[in-house]
């Protein structure tokens, strides 16, 4: 039986350093998000907002819904048509999948993303497209740039040709199989999310709560990890730190809402985003 490493503040293998006084936004990388088909634009916006709150220098949204011209809640996000996503300056990380859909257009966008030479994070419908397309899977396996997958148990089941119950019954075996299948760094989401980088041990997270079983939480996690990677962390370190930070933000948001008449039920993904910045600040200052 594999012994998991525990993700907690004392065991984090890396974290973001404090910023020097003469910082410039170009020093902190770029994140692109491709997704947001009609009816699902919110998924892409949540990922982009999370990336901004985690310190990415520039964040672009390539939405499939061309009616989106600005995010009023976060006007710092730069919007472009999905096919016209600008080349990300290094270091950069592209997210593809939040609200992407599984149309022919979505498949073309995924194939183009898989051919990029910089870091790539695949989530949501990008994983569903991969699960049913051996050609895309072969392109994924041939990538040499950092690649991360963030499946929940249902997406993991589709990738491995199993059912969700089998994934949940043997999560360690499942993440090992996913890493072997894809050659990528994998985050298997759920209670005590697991992280594994090819050739390395499995990390088990200790933060998070049942209130985070809510729409959009995975999109926020994608933005968190991509921002950390864009700021210079390795794929493995960004994944390990990212799942801890995401769960910690969820715990703090839940605690803030635990006044009379409030509880875990109804916690939203948007609520936890401001707590991400607080978590990073505490890790940088040691407070």
Structure description:
By secondary structure, this protein is of the alpha/beta class. The protein has one domain: Ribokinase (UDP-N-acetylmuramoyl-L-alanine:D-glutamate ligase, 3-Layer(aba) Sandwich), CATH 3.40.1190. 41% of the residues lie in helices and 15% in strands. It has a ten-stranded mixed sheet, with helices on both faces. β5, α2 and β6 form a beta-alpha-beta unit. The chain is globular, with a radius of gyration of 18 Å. The relative contact order is 0.17.
Provide a short characterization of the protein structure.
The protein has 287 residues and is an alpha/beta fold. The chain has helices at 41-53, 104-114, 125-131, 134-142, 153-160, 164-169, 171-182, 217-230, 235-256, 269-285, and strands at 5-7, 30-35, 58-63, 78-81, 92-96, 119-122, 147-149, 185-188, 194-196, 202-205.
What global shape is seen?
Answer: globular
| Global Rg | 18 Å
* Count of domain modules: 1
Order of helices and strands: EEHEEEHEHHEHHHEEEHHH
Helix content: 40-55%
CATH class: Alpha Beta
Q: What's the end-to-end separation, in Å?
A: 37 Å
Largest sheet: 10 strands, mixed
Number of continuous helical runs? 10
What fraction of residues sit in β-strands? 5-15%
The CATH topology label is: UDP-N-acetylmuramoyl-L-alanine:D-glutamate ligase
Instruction: Tell me what the CATH architecture is.
Output: 3-Layer(aba) Sandwich
